[in-house]
Amino acid sequence: MNIRLRYTALLAPVVLMPLMLSCGSSSGKGQTLPSAGARGVASSARPDGKENRGRVISLEDATSARATGVPVRSMKWSPDGTLLGFLAPESSSPSSPMALWVYDVGERQRRILVKASELVGSIKESDAEKARRERMRMSRSGIVEYVWAPDGRSILFPLSGALYIYDLASKKARMVPGTSDTAPEITPTLSGKGFLAYCHGDDIVVRRVGSGQSITIGMKGLRLGVAEFVAQEEMGRYRGLWWSRDGGRLLFTSVDESKVPVRERLEYGPSGARVVRQRYPSVGKPNAIVKLHAMTVTETSRPEGVTISKPIEMQLGRYEYVARAGWLPDGRVWAALQDRLQKELRLVACDACTGKCNEIMRLSSQTWVELHDDWSFGPDGFIWAVETRAGRSLQFFDYSGHIRAAMPASSPVASLLHVDWKKGEAWMETYADGGVRTALTVWDFRRNVLRQVKLPSGWHSISIAPSGRMMVDAYTTLSRPLRMIVRKDDGSEVSEIPPLVAPAPWLSRLRPPQLVQIPYDGGTLNGLWFNAHVDTRRTIVFVYGGPHGHMVRDAMRGSMLWHHWFASRGFNVLVVDGRGGLYRDEAFAKAPYHAFGRYEVEDSKAIADYLQSRGIPRRCRAIWGWSYGGYTVLATMTDSDLFVSGAAVAPPTDWRLYDTHYTERYMGLDEKLYESSSITRSRLARMKGALLLVHGMSDDNVLLVNTLRVMYELQSIPHRFRLMLYPGKAHSLWGNATRRHLLGTLMNFFMDTVKCR
User: What is the pLDDT of residues 24-42, one digit of tens each?
Assistant: First the structure.
């Protein structure tokens, strides 16, 4: 899985869009940032010269699942734009399963549609479903995905191995006949003609909605209709079934994993260990072979209710990865294809009846072409996000691949939200203020002009209704908890979606962190500074450091409670985004290319220099990070003497052990690059600071062997270190109890190793 995305799920709950009310906290305006000429303990750790008298939060507060509101997932508008669907827990209980909810824009009310607990006594999940939920960054079970019927009258969702359809008119959910057995049904999808398709085992099942009969499509030795491992982990593609716009044809993947090496790993749990065999395409090894097929589905009077044509394979040409696929407005199949090193992305259009394809666009780069979901296909052309020297932008192409319009210079595009093809408008979120805030920008691609929709300054995550006349804005700042606001297309407020659980009242008494800038040779890095509650120079730096890393935002986020907890126990905390984020120019975004183990160390040097200029010497500063952040810690501490101690959680330590799609994008296939970037014995022998290693013992993303190798080398040198392993836990280390234990372990380690006052 994409390590950056894993971090987002772990420590950035704002992406999950908690529903909450403002707690009336202060705006934070007029605060003094740390100055370069600060002297002494108080002036360096207290930028305003005063004690931080904010509330001291408990460890339970810092890891609470409800302190900042209840997390909301998968916001989807109904086809007519009157209802906003979303997934959220049934109750505020930490063990509550996810349920299906809607917000009625007209009635200005939210309500729960389906509780998982009312349909099944206990939720059963296969190992494959658990792994898929882990890759979707979903900590809770229950209703974890759903799809609106094209007519908006019903909603389809899987639960505990079966499929259910909720009818909005009758307000009842019914199980789809024949879908409850030992092989779970996954990635269901509905067509506009009332056909249902889903994956069952290695096959695809197609049926008429309401019919007890079905047709099963299988191909010997192949898995059909699914997303392969790297598609789920790295590409953000979780399905392999797509209905045509007219609802009469089905596009699907076939996946051949026969050449993908089988990796055996031990999963250690509280009741023992088991051997897990997993097809894992590590660096330099064969990938799964993925193909696309299309078939026609029609209604019949026969008992099964449907009939299908012979599947036609799309003639895609040479490629390594099927990154994206779907249907064009004119009924052709489209696919975005990548080469192995992802230096090219080809967009092809295929005749669904013959399989013949032609290339309609090709993007290339000397580094890599970024993969995204920022595209829209219209009647006379399509919008696609492209990379420019100034950052991500949009271009309007015709179906011959010619550029009809390129968006005028602006801040980099964060995401494409909506395209109104009649008006010729593309609505997008753009980054502002160096990436710490977002704005709503509209591009009139017919006249090639930009305009801004007036919104308050802060961080916005916006979902626009199909009509384009209404939107839901998840809005927050560092001093204001996230609110879910329904707005008109001019930005004016219509209503506020009430919270499922109000945020803790003590949030308003927490002192907001301060946005700071860390100079480096070529620019500045964004940082967040949390003042300790006492005068001290002891400082913990939290980093990610890898590609796509983006933690520093003008947003009140659940992850901030961890840093507030450290601050309340006597540590300043500095959260820093290194280079590699997409919120600035191309040079900033592409810094990781062929540079793992080097560029993030340079950024760490800039961070250390920044702290030194504030009177915080090495003996007073520690560093920690998770996933790629753990690698950044190890790379920094084995290549420099900048920090007195460091903690690496679930760190990749040898990139040859990681998967193809992520690693080869940045590192290619040069063995020398992998050798120089690995955390080897020779690097570890140079490490002077104290080290804590942490890993989940059932991690199927960054495998435990990464930490075991470092342990072995440290013991051989020898170099003492601390270790914490979590039986039965995967990469995310889900669970409030586990998170409390982790934070407590980190605190004890930093208390023991950072002796400065």
Answer: 333 333 333 233 333 233 3
Instruction: Compute the C-alpha angle 671/664/317, nearest 5°.
Output: 120
What pLDDT, in 10s, does the model give residues 476-527? 999 888 889 999 999 999 999 988 878 888 888 889 999 999 999 989 999 9
Closest CA to 473 of 486, 491, 482: 486
Pair (99, 60) in one structural domain: no
> pTM above 0.85?
yes
Distance CA 410, CA 431 (A): 9
Count: domains in the chain:
2
Cβ pair 642, 616 in contact under 8 A: no
For the packed helices 628-637 and 3-11, what is the interaxial angle rounded to 10 degrees?
110
Among residues 272, 295, 319, which one ends one of the domains? 272
Do 722 and 678 sit in the same domain of this protein?
yes
Residue 116 lies in a domain: yes
Supply the range of the domain harboring residue 260: 73-272
Question: Quick check: bond before 592 cis, omega within 30?
Answer: no
Helix then strand then coil, % of the chain, to nearest 5: 20, 35, 45
CATH of the domain at 539: 3.40.50.1820
Of the candidates 710, 701, 712, the one whose C-alpha atom is nearest the C-alpha of residue 657 is: 701
Q: Where does residue 258 rank: exposed (0-12), middle (13-18), buried (19+ CB within 10 A)? A: exposed
Contacts of 55 (CB under 8 A, 6+ apart): 506, 509, 510, 568
Give residue for tokens 């099963």.
216
Q: Residue 251 falls within a domain, yes or no?
A: yes
How many other CB atoms are there within 10 angstroms of residue 433's CB atom? 14
